[in-house]
Specification:
This protein is of the alpha/beta class. It is built from 11 helices and 15 strands. It is globular. The relative contact order is 0.18. The protein binds flavin-adenine dinucleotide. The site of flavin-adenine dinucleotide has 38 residues, from helix 1, strand 4 and helix 10.
Length: 458
């Protein structure tokens, strides 16, 4: 590729304690936790509203925050607080009230007990209120383009917006970009995809439909309870007749809080990389083509959808997987299988490995059994060599298989809360984030209603 030399003198917009990049579930929790712990915190988000996949991606429901057997809520803290606040204004249902095999979880049982359905507009306003009440400074419509690095330490970032290029200085940067943009551009190590061929999980453009006959869907689902996935026989019949070409066995239809409105998680675009803008463009075009095909299919074939209308498509294609930062520890499938305990545990989770095949119509849902409860250690949030930066959410240090489990939104909240709290503690103590006193971090998380298991464990 031909190159040009590009140098620019840019104004310093702000100097803060903690700069959080990305306002998805990880970034929201990180920024709120950091500000609540007294750090001057700036949250930078490329879209004009908060939420990441919770809003822009139209992704939902929030997968389980409970143990795999559905008996114990593991992810609490800021995640639970946000759900409770949304529920109070009619914008969510607390997971304790949502059983497996219900319309809210597409009639799936395994791993789908206690999901949290919510309305994206409610999330936008509640997240904004929580950030503002915590004292988080916001910079929307702003993309982090280049971290500032000095002597192996990230010291801030250059951001781009309608105001042009500007610099933000920070003592600690928390990379919640989901793509590890900060760490990757600062020269930190990252990995992508499966070990065998580097292929990543497929992308999906979510969309919502209105005008669904909820009762008719429910009756069909109850009459087909014995199918591995409700609706899969409809898909297979259409595929055999040459009427359906989406490379995915099942259809994911998720009822929302609004009567007649369902989220559709079914388009599938394989062989694409969320850090490559040509792939993203191609995926948006193909995703939209599939939405048109699916609307016709739903209306013609799926009970209850005869009069369904397209309500909206997500503002962005959904990326399930891209860069994984290489951290001080890399969480493995074996850790999830055995429920391995870590002295530096900062989050407990129970969602199983959920890998959508990069190259076939399959999913790998029950192939990799995980423990009822497994742990995420602090070291997964600490990049191997770079200082001044922590990561949380989809780009944490985990294998392709382990990320297949911890990539969902409640664990992203839990990791974000841990990273934001650690960032604030690092600033207060004047130490590098990797040198934070882990006991003090765990005590702070517990005091803020995070659940890390029984205190005797650490
Ligand atoms: C198709 C699909 C279906 C899924 N289904 C579910 C589900 O049903 N339930 C569930 O719980 N999870 C689901 N997930 C997983 C979940 O949505 C994500 O893994 C989760 O949102 C990750 O959280 P995050 O905060 O790391 O990233 P994101 O939610 O992606 O948020 C990242 C934020 O950072 C911003 N950003 C990125 N780069 C920059 C930059 N350089 N500068 C400024 N801002 C930036 C983005 O705009 C975004 O707001 C699904 C994911 C996909 C793609």
């Amino acid at each position: 590729v031909p190159t040009i030399d590009f140098n620019a003198e840019v104004p310093i917009r702000a100097s803060v304690d903690v700069l959080v990049v990305g306002a998805g579930p990880a970034g929201l929790a990180a920024a709120i936790a950091s500000a609540r712990h007294g750090a001057r915190t700036l949250l930078v988000e490329r879209y004009g509203y908060l939420g990441g996949n919770l809003t822009a991606g139209l992704v939902g429901p929030c997968m389980t925050s409970y143990s795999l057997d559905g008996t114990q809520q593991l992810i609490r803290g800021i995640f639970d607080e946000m759900i409770v606040r949304m529920e109070a204004e009619g914008g969510a249902i607390h997971p304790s009230k949502v059983p497996a095999n219900s319309a809210y979880c597409s009639y799936i049982t395994y791993g789908h007990d206690k999901v949290a359905p919510f309305e994206p507009e409610s999330l936008k306003s509640v997240a904004l209120a929580m950030c503002r009440q915590a004292g988080v400074e916001l910079l929307l419509h702003t993309q982090m383009v280049q971290p500032l690095v000095a002597d192996g330490r990230v010291t801030g970032a250059v951001v781009a917006s309608k105001s042009g290029l500007e610099a933000i200085e920070a003592t600690v940067v928390v990379d919640c970009s989901a793509d590890g943009d900060v760490v990757a551009r600062a020269g930190g190590a990252t990995r992508t995809g499966r070990d065998s061929d580097g292929l990543m999980q497929p992308m999906t453009l979510f969309f919502r439909v209105a005008g669904v006959d909820d009762e008719a869907v429910e009756s069909y689902a109850r009459a087909h309870d014995d199918e591995y996935r409700v609706f899969s026989s409809i898909v297979e019949t259409a595929r055999a007749a040459g009427e359906y070409d989406i490379p995915r066995r099942g259809i994911g239809l998720y009822k929302t809080l609004k009567p007649g409105v369902w989220r559709i998680n079914t388009t599938r675009i394989q062989n694409v990389d969320g850090t490559n803008v040509d792939d993203l463009t191609r995926a948006e075009i193909e995703g939209r083509r599939q939405v048109t095909e699916l609307m016709a299919f739903l209306r013609a074939k799926v009970p209850g959808f005869a009069h369904a209308e397209l309500l909206d498509t997500a503002a962005t294609i959904g990326v399930r997987e891209s860069r994984r930062v290489v951290g001080e520890y890399t969480l493995t499938l074996d850790d999830l299988r055995t429920g391995r305990e870590f002295d530096d545990v900062v989050a407990l989770c129970g969602y199983p490995v959920d890998i959508h095949s990069p190259d076939s119509p399959d999913g790998r849902f029950e192939e990799d059994p995980t423990a009822n409860v497994y742990q995420i250690p602090f070291r997964c949030l600490v990049p191997e060599r770079l200082d001044g930066v922590l990561v949380a959410g989809r780009c944490v240090s985990a294998s392709h298989e382990a990320l297949g489990a911890i990539r969902v939104m409640p664990p992203a909240f839990a990791m974000g809360q841990a990273a934001g709290t650690a960032a604030a503690l690092a600033v207060a103590a004047g130490v590098a984030p990797r040198a934070v006193d882990v006991r003090a971090l765990q005590d702070a998380l517990r005091a803020d209603d995070a659940y890390l298991g029984e205190p005797a464990r650490v």
